[in-house]
Here is the input.
Amino acid sequence: MFRRPYRLRSVYERMLGTELELQIVAGTRPQAEAAERAALDEVDRLAGVLNRFDPASEFSRWAATEEHPLPLSPELRHVLVQADLWRERSGGAFHPGADALGALWAEAAARDQRPDPQALADVAAALRSPLWTLHPDGTATRHGTLPVGLNALAKGFVVDRAAEAAFRAPGVRAALVNVGGDLRTLGGRGLRVAVADPFTPRDDAPPLAWVRVRDGALATSGGAHRGYRIGPAWYSHLLDPRSGQPVSAVPGVTVTAPSCLTADALATALSVLDVGRGLALADATPGAAALVVTREGKRHASGRWGKG
Here is the structure.
């Protein structure tokens, strides 16, 4: 007798700093629930490795060192390798040290004045030097005291690993993990995702576009609604690590890619790069596609956008 697959959907608040949604299609309810537990266990495990807000996490303990090599777990080393790779690929538009610039802008906004230009220039210059060295023996040495932020990659990595853990579970036919709009899907026919209009904060606003994601990932980035108010002016929270200045030319980026880590890295870089260089980077990334919206409201698509 034909039995319809069991479909599970669950939402968890305050996981990875936002909302986590799981969708699982499996042969039976117990199989779907086992897959859900596998995904949540992986999220918890990796939070203990990568959560920068937890002083006991492996990342926090390593980031608190200076000029002292420490052995790393394979997971943390992988994310650091990817951070180096994307910093190089993007010409510094993606940078794990950008949080140091954000701290200067936040302090300046609290004083209701722009940051000191020399202080921004000094931090931007310091970011041109490596923040760490990865050694062949599996250790890594942290350089300097500038804050290191892996959020743009760590969240994507956790989404990937949680989706893969769910999909590996017996009886699972399809799995989706969505964390704050960054998602990874495996199996099934995929899903059609609405691209939000970056010029309105309304959740019920008509979508800017639709894109299909199947056996892949999607991530977005934008600075239209988060940032710093200084006097009458509003500055995006997205900062160019090469100059320390807020970026405003690209308020909305949506990226599809084979993995959520890749999609997150690209979305961050494309928010900083000029449109031409950003689309070229998307085209040069295997399996990736991007839709970039400029402040004039114009849409610019990479070569593979909408062809998945």
The chain has a mean pLDDT of 92.
